[in-house]
Design brief:
single chain, 237 residues, mainly beta, Jelly Rolls, 7-stranded mixed beta sheet, 7-stranded antiparallel beta sheet, globular, RmlC-like_jellyroll, Pirin, Pirin family protein
Length: 237
Amino acid sequence: MATYVYHEAGTRGIVNHGWLHSKHSFSFGSYYNPERMNFGALRVLNDDQVAAGAGFGKHPHDNMEIISIPLSGGLAHQDSMGNGSTIEKGNIQVMSAGTGIQHAEFNASQTEEVRFLQIWVIPNQRNVTPRYDEKRIFWSKAKNDFLPIVSSERKDSIVWIYQDAYFYLGDFDAGFEKEYKLQNPEHGVYLFVLSGSVEVDGQVLNNRDALAISDTDAFTIKATSNAEFLLMEVPLN
């Protein structure tokens, strides 16, 4: 029988540094909750808002897959590998930190905030050569479907990571429902609502709510209003 753990949006950790407003789904930085350390290989899901002209200075990472998904505004990036770019909604960015990198990320605008998700996935290989990639996401292809955006498979249309994980975007019309079949029945799924509301097996999820799903090989998502969501299938061990 499927196991569901509901994470209401208001139970996330809150960080407010003035220039940065962030909501943490899992323990991160000054937010610590022993019951919210990770969901399998999914280690971090931060919902960030960065004020105009502000950002994170250069800082190090290693042995982590770091995925950034802009939701509004422009997110500028620079790293020790020589990469520099600005991504907006419709882009996805990944870094395999591997043996170690330094990077900075900041709001590309002097007048508007930037909102983005930063997601960390624990890799299945350590000390790899660091790498950077970004891709264009065609959100229109997520209309009443599951649009693949992250995978371990090296395809042109998605970013790949060092982990047997599968991320999808969904953009469902109100009343539409669709079954999701896991790539691996031993995996789990973390379903995160970006806007609107959906229902899974009687559990309604609203804006920024999440549901951790395990012990099943399939489940059905029904949109109870027009809804956008991010579905993350990851190994649990």
